[in-house]
Structure formats: structure tokens, C-alpha cells
Specification:
Length: 489
């Protein structure tokens, strides 16, 4: 198997635990009049996931002790409209949340039928809350969801950790990982108060309302609107501020929307861990507790965080619609307000050509990025958290959340693993980044043409992974990071 992490003997394990995360089940499928498109989804391969669960069920039927852990972001409430044309960062009304849950389940009924069959065969199912499926913690929603998965017939076989608690199996620790991401930290204290009131049928007073994470606000108010036109926007990895310069070239009219990013990011920075693996505020406070007068990040500050400072300066210098100070207020200058699609349609080739070098500058800033290397974690907050957690006696720390599979050696037989995602991802083509001169510009034109027309299938990658733990007694004998598309389960 690929990604062998640790071995201590090769005897048959007493128990096999399969950990997956970031399934992102949800979002509209393409309509019949949208052939070749992807609808509003980031997971277009539920069929592969369903086969995976079926295989685990077959192993259980053979008498093996099998547990499936879904480590957060199982469902994607943020990808579903609470009302036609309306996305919200958190569906507070349990009736609305139940209705959206029904839509999600009905769209991919075969998966949920297979999960129920897995539990019915005696398989163990453990769920952890993520940041795209916070609504599952609400009492009525949670009860219905567990019923759909078979808890009514086999309550002892299903567990759900929804209160910020990590899951320990022997000397392995499992958690989604959003706790260490200021953008997506969940205020479990406030969520608990909402749950308490809803469990009694009481209304939620305004000052008891749950403040959704800044990342959820970003998705619902910025990313989803952009995604209506550019389907790649939530697929492109690495998921950093590098998407901002690309969007500014593709669609400068989004400047006002990007201002929201600056405000939310400033808020999120207040809630980065004060020290590794330790939240800055009690109760995992969310990233939106008030601005206290802090100004939003400027475009210059966001770009510098996304790329080397000299590349950011070059990008700003070559973007005429940007003011001298790098602020976003001038982005809507009429000369640069036309989106890429409109430039193509109107034949404004000169305008388009002026943008190409700017975009190439932004893309080349990603050229040396090591985000896709499995043995390297380029986001230090997760590596620092894992390093701190193994000091508490754990040998293996397993996160999800980042969508990038990892197996990082922490020394002395200890490992940090990330189970990646079963959703689609996308990266800038390496051939484009390596090309020079006229060849690079020609390839960039083709790439932009495909992005503008949402012809992104050839750039999209499906790279599912899972972490498998072989457990004997209270000790993990072996841990593996595996790709089910490349090897038998």
C-alpha cells in the first residue's frame, strides 16, 4: 500500500479503522440542459465513495471488526440554497435545516443507503463535526440524520462527536482540524446555547444567535456568488490568498467583494491559536466577535501573504486599476470593470492582452509551492498543532480540513496524517508554469479560455485518500495513508 506509516508486526489486527474526511456531499447537480458541467458541487464522485463504503460493508460481512470514521465536513450545507438564490453561512432555523438535509440526502440516496447497510451489518460509524456541516449539531437535525444512517435500529453502532471533542483510538488522535484555522474556528460555546434552547422548543434571542465562522461567511457571501460564473473558484489549491490576484485579473469588478475578504481575514487573525494546539479564546470562539475598530486588510497586505513581496509589488505595479496604496476601492474603474467573459465576447483583445502578464505573475508565485507533496505540510498551523499533540502521548495525529493528503514524519515513530478529501481539487497546470515566452502566453490564453467557459474537466483532479489504523488492544499497530483508486482496501 502507498503511504505506509508505521509497522509493528504483521498479524491480523483486532480492528481496522478507516478515516475519511471532507466529503462535501451537497450542492446542486447539473441540470439536463447543462451537459458536461458540474452544477454547484465540489464532489462529483459520490459513486466512488459509495463503492468504498460498500467494500467496507463486505469486509464487515466477512466477520472483520471494521469502523468508519467520517472526520468532518461530511455534508456541505454551505453549497445549498436555503431559499432560491440565497446562501447563508449558517441555517439557524431547524425546519429550514431539516429541509436542506432532506435535499442533500435525496440527491445522493445510494450513499446513505450504503452507510445504513454498513451499520446494519455491524460496522461501526463514528462522525465528527466539521465547519461546513455545523447544522448537524442542532438537536432535531442531528436526530433525523442519525435516524437516516440507521441509529434507530443500531444505536450502539453510531457515535457522533459534535461538541469540539477530539476522538482518540489507542495512541491515535483524530479531529477535523478547523480548530487551528482562524477562518473556520467554530464557537462551540455559542452553538451549545442555541442547541439548549432549541431542544426545549424556545426561540433564539438575537444576543444568543450563533456567530458563524468567518470562512462560512466568506463562502456564502463571496465565493458562492463568484462560483455562479467561475466554477473553479472553490476547487483551486492550495487554498490561500493566491486566488485573489487571479480573480482580480479575471474579474476586477469583484473588488468590492474582495473587500469583504480583507475584513473577514482581519477578524480571523484574532483567533489563530495563541500557541500550538491551544485556541486563543475559551470555547473555541468563532472568528467574528466584532471588529473593535480594526481596519480590513488591504490588497497589498493580502497579496504579500499570498506570494513573495517582490512578486506582489510587481503585480500591483502592473495593475492600473489599483490605487497607489494598494487599496481595493479603485478596482471598479470603468476601464477594468469588464469581466473576462465580456472581454472575449466583445473582442477587446488589447484589453485582454494587458491582463495576461499580470495573471502570469500571480500564477508563477505558486510555481515553487510544495502543497501537493504528501510528506510536506506547508501550512504551519497544522504541523505545529500536530507536533504539540504528540507530546501528550499520541503517536499519530490525524486531521482533515485542508483537502490535501499528508503523511509527515514527526520523529521518534510519531506521525502527522491528513486524510485529504473525496471532493474534486484543481491546480494550475505545471506545463503552463514551466513554459516561457510566447509558448507560455499561448498556453495561458487557452487556460483562461477554458476557465471563462467553465471547461475545467481536464484540470480537475479526483484524488481520494483515507487513513487506515490497524488496532490491537489500546495500541495502533500500523497506520497507512492510502488511495483507494490505486490499491485494494
Amino acid at each position: 500500500m502507498s503511504g505506509t506509516i508505521h509497522k509493528e508486526g504483521m498479524s491480523t489486527p483486532q480492528r481496522s479503522v478507516y478515516i475519511i474526511s471532507d466529503l462535501h456531499i451537497g450542492g446542486r447537480y447539473p441540470e439536463p440542459n447543462e451537459p458536461g458541467q458540474r452544477g454547484f458541487r465540489i464532489n462529483t464522485r459520490v459513486d466512488a465513495l459509495t463503492r468504498f463504503v460498500r467494500t467496507l460493508g463486505a469486509r464487515r460481512a466477512e466477520g472483520l471488526d471494521v469502523e468508519l470514521v467520517i472526520n468532518g465536513d461530511f455534508l456541505d450545507f454551505l453549497a445549498e440554497e436555503v431559499r432560491p438564490g440565497t446562501f447563508v453561512p449558517f441555517i439557524a432555523d431547524p425546519g429550514d435545516a431539516l429541509r436542506v438535509l432532506g435535499v442533500i440526502v435525496e440527491q445522493d440516496k445510494s450513499l446513505f443507503d450504503e452507510l445504513r447497510a454498513f451499520v446494519g451489518r455491524g460496522g461501526r460509524l463514528t462522525l465528527l463535526l466539521g465547519n461546513h456541516d455545523v447544522e448537524l449539531a442542532l438537536p432535531h437535525v442531528r436526530a433525523e440524520f442519525l435516524r437516516l444512517l440507521g441509529a434507530d435500529a443500531s444505536p450502539a453502532r453510531i457515535s457522533f462527536l459534535y461538541d469540539g471533542e477530539a476522538y482518540a483510538i489507542g495512541d491515535a488522535l483524530i479531529e477535523h482540524g478547523n480548530r487551528y484555522d482562524g477562518f473556520n474556528t467554530v464557537d462551540h460555546g455559542a452553538l451549545r446555547e442555541v442547541r439548549s434552547l432549541q431542544s426545549r422548543g424556545q426561540p433564539i434571542p438575537p444576543d444568543f444567535a450563533f456567530p458563524p465562522p468567518a470562512g462560512s461567511q466568506l463562502v456564502s457571501s463571496v465565493m458562492n456568488e463568484i462560483k455562479r460564473q467561475y466554477r473553479f473558484v472553490d476547487l483551486l489549491k492550495p487554498e490561500t490568498e493566491a486566488v485573489l490576484p487571479i480573480l482580480l485579473v479575471l474579474e476586477p469588478g469583484y473588488g468590492n467583494k474582495i473587500l469583504t475578504v480583507g475584513r473577514l481575514k482581519r477578524e480571523a487573525e484574532k483567533h489563530k491559536p495563541a500557541q500550538p494546539a491551544m485556541p486563543r479564546h475559551r470555547g473555541d470562539l468563532s472568528a467574528v466577535e466584532g471588529t473593535d475598530g480594526a481596519s480590513p486588510l488591504t490588497l497589498a497586505e493580502m497579496l504579500t501573504a499570498a506570494m513573495p513581496a517582490d512578486a506582489a509589488r510587481e503585480f500591483l505595479t502592473n495593475l492600473p486599476a489599483t490605487s497607489t496604496g494598494g487599496e481595493l476601492s479603485a478596482i471598479d474603474d470603468v476601464r477594468f470593470a469588464g469581466g473576462l467573459l465580456r472581454l472575449w465576447a466583445s473582442g477587446m483583445t488589447q484589453e485582454l492582452e494587458q491582463r495576461l502578464p499580470k495573471l502570469l505573475t500571480a500564477l508563477r508565485a505558486l510555481q515553487k509551492d510544495r502543497s501537493f507533496e504528501r510528506s510536506v505540510e506547508t501550512q504551519p498551523e497544522y504541523l505545529k498543532a500536530a507536533t504539540e499533540l504528540v507530546r501528550g502521548g499520541y503517536r499519530f495525529v490525524i486531521f482533515g480540513h485542508t483537502h490535501l493528503p499528508k503523511a509527515v514524519d514527526l520523529g521518534r515513530g510519531r506521525m502527522y496524517l491528513n486524510s485529504g478529501t473525496w471532493a474534486d481539487t484543481m491546480r494550475v497546470p505545471s506545463a503552463l508554469l514551466d513554459a516561457e515566452g510566447p509558448e507560455a502566453m499561448a498556453m495561458l490564453r487557452d487556460f483562461l479560455s477554458d476557465l471563462a467557459a467553465n471547461r475545467i474537466a481536464s484540470y480537475v483532479e479526483f484524488n481520494p485518500h483515507y487513513v487506515r489504523l490497524d488496532v490491537r488492544g489500546s495500541r495502533v499497530e500500523r497506520a497507512l495513508l492510502c488511495n483507494p483508486e490505486e490499491e485494494p482496501i
